[in-house]
Design goal:
Layout: H1 7-14, H2 30-33, E1 38-56, E2 59-80, E3 91-113, E4 116-127, H3 131-134, E5 138-143, E6 146-151, E7 159-173, E8 176-199, E9 220-229, E10 232-244, E11 256-274, E12 277-283, E13 291-293
Length: about 290
């Protein structure tokens, strides 16, 4: 047996979201207000699909195509700390937006022989930004010599792109499968965390937030925000080998081999801070190894 925590029971027992007593939202500690925020998202999707199975000359062919339409509603609630006359008078504001994505897709499988198949896939894709990026609140982090302003972007666009995948599969036997795939992805919108150094006074935030912190409006702060870039391209190839040791003797019964090698080349646009100005540069896609084998 095992035990698992129940967050809902904890919240109910200690009323941590009740906004009373120890859990009341602070209106007197400016540095704490930046973390008092909420983001809600509502998604509505509809799709249609078409399938086909027949012959293309002497070759059997299967195909399917679909269209998915997604409507996204987002609301970001936060305390606006800009140009406050008093640190105890923040303005609770809400930023709302709505956007619609139309995502077509198509897949084709051509059977050259009972042991050889060629597959082609085309699609437009979309990945919504994390809710932490959408949070509109701005938070200050001041400790010792550290000076930092962190802000979200309630109007950040999702990552959008188009993909093409081409693969050839060969089945020499029931226990052996070899495949080679080529892929190309065009990312039209990308999301980046952008950092720059500038005076606190340039952020537009109220100077009252610095009271009793030891920091001054003229101090340089590391300003981190979420922005969109024009993305770029990702392409590569993938090789797979799968083998099952059936019929190889009782010593190897139940064993098998699964090998994969992937090689990727990418070119993505990013922005760097260049003496207070954004400078576009191109590098590999972050958190993606150019070669992997397993």
């Amino acid at each position: 047996c095992w035990f698992a925590p129940d967050p809902e029971a904890f919240a109910k027992t200690y009323n941590i979201y009740g906004n009373v007593g120890r859990t009341v939202v602070s209106r007197d500690v400016p540095l704490a207000r930046g973390f008092n925020q909420s983001v809600t998202e509502t998604d509505l999707a509809a799709f249609v699909e078409w399938t086909f199975e027949g012959m293309w000359g002497p070759f059997p062919i299967k195909a399917d195509a679909g269209l998915r339409v997604i409507e996204t509603h987002q609301n970001s609630e936060f305390y606006n700390e800009a140009n406050l006359a008093s640190p105890s008078a923040p303005r609770l504001e809400t930023v709302s937006r709505r956007y619609v994505d139309t995502l077509p897709t198509a897949n084709i499988a051509l059977e050259l022989s009972p042991r050889q198949v060629v597959r082609l896939g085309l699609a437009k894709v979309m990945s919504r930004p994390p809710l932490t990026n959408i949070a509109a609140a701005t938070a200050l982090n001041i400790g010792g010599g550290s000076r930092q302003v962190i802000s979200g972007n309630p109007l950040i666009k999702p990552i959008r792109g188009a993909t093409i995948d081409l693969a050839a599969e060969w089945y020499p036997s029931r226990d052996l499968n070899l495949s080679l795939g080529l892929f190309y992805k065009h990312i039209s919108t990308y999301i980046q965390n952008y950092s720059s150094v500038g005076a606190y006074a340039s952020t537009g935030l109220s100077e009252t937030l610095l009271e009793n912190t030891g920091a001054a409006p003229s101090d340089d702060f590391l300003i981190t925000e979420v922005i969109n870039t024009r993305g770029g391209e990702v392409n590569g190839l993938e090789f797979n080998l799968r083998w099952r040791a059936r019929g190889a003797g009782s010593l190897f019964s139940g064993l098998g081999l699964d090998l994969n090698y992937t090689q990727i080349k990418s070119d993505i646009e990013y922005f760097l801070d260049d003496q207070g100005q954004r400078r576009a540069v191109h590098f590999d896609l972050l958190n993606l190894s150019p070669r992997t084998a397993r």
